[in-house]
Amino acid sequence: MSETVRTTCPYCGVGCGVLATRNAGGGVDIAGDPEHPANFGRLCTKGAALGETVSLEGRVLKPLVMGEPTNWDAALDLVAKRFSQTIAEHGPDSIAFYVSGQLLTEDYYVANKLMKGFIGSANIDTNSRLCMASSVAGPGRVITILARPRAPQVGPG
Ligand code: SF4
């Protein structure tokens, strides 16, 4: 019988408790942790689909340049060269970073330092803003519409 691991959903700051159990097919079954104070067993759609993200199938595990595999040194040299050329021709604001919302705080620091401290632009944002903002705003709108009081019915007589 597989051991169940108590862990935390990595997607957002709610930090829901998750129970992860390896299944017979080699995947992981996911359930909300009923004892976790952040979610008491519930998970949103993203958290509930965590089990679908653990496979390596379809992931890019090595650098690719124009779809061709290469090594990290060559890939990083190419990125640095293209950044330098673009900045020289069009200035630092011609570069922008759109960064994953799943980075750690230290990773964010490095990315911000690179953009603001070295490239010299403030063009950096993460999908944390768009992803979670839309996840919150969408259901909020729907619930508001459903909960809106109905206008008084005006009829004859
Ligand atoms: S609200 Fe959803 S995305 Fe955020 S921690 Fe909980 S399950 Fe994960």
Strand content: 15-25%
**Strand count:** 7
Helix-residue proportion: 25-40%
Main beta-sheet annotation: 3 strands, antiparallel
Q: Give, in order, the helices and strands.
A: EEEHEEHEHEH
Determine Rg (CA atoms, Å). 23 Å
Count of DSSP-assigned helices: 4
Distinct small molecules: iron/sulfur cluster
Number of domains: 2
Mean pLDDT value:
87
Output the structural class: alpha+beta
Uncertain parts: none
Distance between the termini: 71 Å
Q: For the largest beta sheet, what order do the strands appear in spatially?
A: 1-2-3
Sum up the overall morphology in one term: extended
How is this structure best described in words?
With 157 residues, the protein is an alpha+beta fold. It has two domains: 4-51, Single Sheet (N-terminal domain of TfIIb), CATH 2.20.25.90; 64-130, no CATH class. It has four helices and seven strands; from the N terminus they run βββαββαβαβα. The longest helix is centred in the last third of the chain and has 21 residues, at 127-147. It starts with a strand and ends in a 10-residue tail after the last helix. The chain binds iron/sulfur cluster. The site of iron/sulfur cluster has 11 residues, from helix 1.
Q: Could you give the topology of this structure?
A:
Elements: E1 4-8, E2 17-22, E3 28-32, H1 45-48, E4 64-65, E5 68-69, H2 72-90, E6 97-99, H3 105-119, E7 124-126, H4 127-147
Parallel strand pairs: 6-7
Antiparallel strand pairs: 1-2, 2-3, 4-5
Bound molecules: iron/sulfur cluster (SF4).
